[in-house]
């Protein structure tokens, strides 16, 4: 049983896994090229701190994302189905060809398990139009900016004005717009199993966990997103039984 028992899937159709095996993940896509997935784990995410750690959590997530070859656009602690989770938007260069993949995820950690709601969309053959238009309008000096969670951060992908939500209305079919809107719409509809909701919250890593600073992403995305977590200290608690899975990066394709 999944921790998420209901979602607004209007416009989405189930997509068969590449290996046809299922693997415990639920994956859908739509005509716009948006991929939606839900992943349950008897693992907790590689979070360096509990969700109430504030600026420290966001700073370390941004740093670790950059160290993995990608860039954190935005992150907040938001409730999914009434339970606090880490909401993120990330961009990563495509493994082949030009352009970027934009990924949004809601990670809801509990004491010894977690669930991830994820949305992904990639740029097509024509890329960079949004960035070029915004840079022309705001000027290059105002285009590239310091990262809001760590002004000293220097990563492989820049933090810039074109990724801000105020430009979404002017680029309604851009993959970032689609990811941001879809994650908000579907997330607002999420209903969590009462047994998952009743589990103790994630307390943060213990001193000997050796967990990396933030979710452990990989520097590559593909068509089938899949999250990852940190190994649990024991068997999963009673409640929805998250699927056992290898330690995979939370935005990496299977």
Number of helices: 5
Average pLDDT, all residues: 81
Q: Mind describing the biggest β-sheet?
A: 7 strands, antiparallel
Radius of gyration over all CA atoms, rounded: 18 Å
Strand percentage, roughly? Answer: 25-35%
- In the predicted model, the low-confidence regions spanning at least 5 consecutive residues are 18-22, 209-254
- In helices, the fraction of residues equals 10-25%
Structure classification: alpha+beta
Strand order of the largest sheet: 2-3-4-9-8-7-6
Task: Identify the quaternary structure here.
Answer: single chain
Q: What sequence of helices (H) and strands (E) makes up the elements?
A: EEEEEHEEEEHHHEHEEE
How many β-strand runs?
A: 13
The dominant shape is: globular
Straight-line N-to-C gap: 21 Å
């Amino acid at each position: 049983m999944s921790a998420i028992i209901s979602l607004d899937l209007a416009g989405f159709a189930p997509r068969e896994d590449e290996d046809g095996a299922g693997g415990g993940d639920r994956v859908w896509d739509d005509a716009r090229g948006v991929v939606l997935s839900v992943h349950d784990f008897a693992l907790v995410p590689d979070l360096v701190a509990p969700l109430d750690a504030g600026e420290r959590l966001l700073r370390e997530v941004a740093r670790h994302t950059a160290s993995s070859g990608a860039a954190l656009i935005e992150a907040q602690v938001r409730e999914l189905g009434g339970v606090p989770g880490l909401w993120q938007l990330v961009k990563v260069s495509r493994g082949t060809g030009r352009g970027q993949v934009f990924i949004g995820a809601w990670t809801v950690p509990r004491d010894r398990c977690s669930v991830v709601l994820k949305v992904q969309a990639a740029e097509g053959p024509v890329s960079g139009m949004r960035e070029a238009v915004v840079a022309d309008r705001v000027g290059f000096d105002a285009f590239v900016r310091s990262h809001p969670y760590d002004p000293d951060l220097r990563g492989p992908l820049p933090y810039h004005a074109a990724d801000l939500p105020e430009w979404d209305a002017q680029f309604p079919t851009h993959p970032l717009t689609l990811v941001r809107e879809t994650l908000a719409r579907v997330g607002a509809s999420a209903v969590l199993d009462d047994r998952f909701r009743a589990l103790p919250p994630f307390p943060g890593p213990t001193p000997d966990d050796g967990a990396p600073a933030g979710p452990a992403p990989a520097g590559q995305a593909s068509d089938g997103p899949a999250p990852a977590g940190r190994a649990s200290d024991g068997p999963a608690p009673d409640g929805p039984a998250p699927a056992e899975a290898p330690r995979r990066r939370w935005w990496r394709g299977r």
